[in-house]
UniProtKB/TrEMBL annotation:
Pfam families: ABC_tran. It is found in: Cell inner membrane. Keywords: ATP-binding, Cell inner membrane, Cell membrane, Lipoprotein, Membrane, Nucleotide-binding, Translocase, Transport. Residues 14-234 form the ABC transporter domain. The keyword Zinc does not apply. Its main location: membrane. Its EC number is 7.6.2.-. It is a peripheral membrane protein. This is Lipoprotein-releasing system ATP-binding protein LolD. NCBIfam families: LolD_lipo_ex. It comes from Alcanivorax jadensis T9. Part of the ABC transporter complex LolCDE involved in the translocation of mature outer membrane-directed lipoproteins, from the inner membrane to the periplasmic chaperone, LolA. Responsible for the formation of the LolA-lipoprotein complex in an ATP-dependent manner.
Length: 234
């Protein structure tokens, strides 16, 4: 596997070319993506907006290797997904990508620290190193005083910050976030949005953020709109 920093000598983390996705609907074929091109370079932060049903989640699933394209190509750190087994795609995903969703998906019976340590434990790191890295990452999202709290004892914004820490703990090149603040009140959403912009700035992690929030999108240096199956830079 290539390293993201010098995969192509250009710091390209993710590249999609002429991406098409159709769903088979019996007699009909629903073409959701009709030829999407996108390049994400190290440290980029980009927002993707689009009306409901325009294919934003479909696009993220393809780019993150969670689903396969009908045509076209996706490569992560210079590795083309099309010819890769599901197992190798999973390995690539774990190494280079982090994911944040609208709902935090934290495990309720585990503390914030244990939830954040989980991806490292699954990867086979030693328990001591997992704990240390998880604590350091929770500090980066301002939750060093909440390590032992379970999700039920955290506020909505805190839970989402734990989810962001969990996505960051493996030091991914790119975090893909699907409506990460869609479930938060306006004020809390604004805090979590600022946190992602800060983390991008301080850690150099690239962020791709699907959002309905046009104001948030306008705070991101790159903005794209998905419309009629195509992705257009705004
Ligand atoms: N597995 C599937 N099988 C058939 N059609 C699907 C499937 N997944 C999504 N679709 C359809 O593809 C279109 C795009 O869906 P998608 O979830 O990607 O949109 P979205 O832009 O993320 O929407 P929202 O903003 O409402 O979450 C929709 O018309 C949806 O019904």
């Amino acid at each position: 596997m290539n390293d993201s920093r010098n995969a192509t000598g250009t710091g390209i983390v993710l590249q999609a070319e002429k991406l098409v996705k159709s769903y088979d609907e019996g007699n009909n074929e629903l073409e959701v993506l009709s030829g999407v091109d996108l390049t994400v370079t190290q440290g980029d932060i980009l927002a993707i907006i689009g009306t409901s049903g325009s294919g934003k989640s479909t696009l993220l699933n393809l780019l993150g290797g969670l689903d396969r394209a009908t045509r076209g190509s996706v490569s992560i750190a210079g590795n083309a997904l099309a010819t890769m087994s599901d197992r190798d795609t999973g390995k690539l995903r774990n190494r280079y990508l982090g994911f944040v969703y609208q709902f935090h998906h934290l495990l309720p019976e585990f503390t914030a620290l244990e939830n954040v340590a989980m991806p490292l434990l699954i990867r086979g790191d030693s328990p001591a190193s997992c704990q240390e890295k998880a604590a350091a990452t929770l500090k980066k999202v301002g939750l060093e005083h909440r390590l032992k709290h379970k999700p039920s004892a955290l506020s909505g914004g805190e839970r989402q910050r734990v989810a962001i820490a969990r996505a960051l703990v493996t030091e991914p090149a790119l975090v893909m976030a699907d409506e990460p603040t869609g479930n938060l009140d306006e004020r809390t959403a604004a805090h979590v949005q600022s946190l992602m912009l800060e983390l991008n700035d301080t850690l150099g992690t690239a962020f791709m953020i699907v959002t309905h929030d046009r104001e948030f999108a306008s705070r991101c240096p790159q903005q794209y709109e998905l419309h009629d199956g195509l992705l257009r830079r705004l």
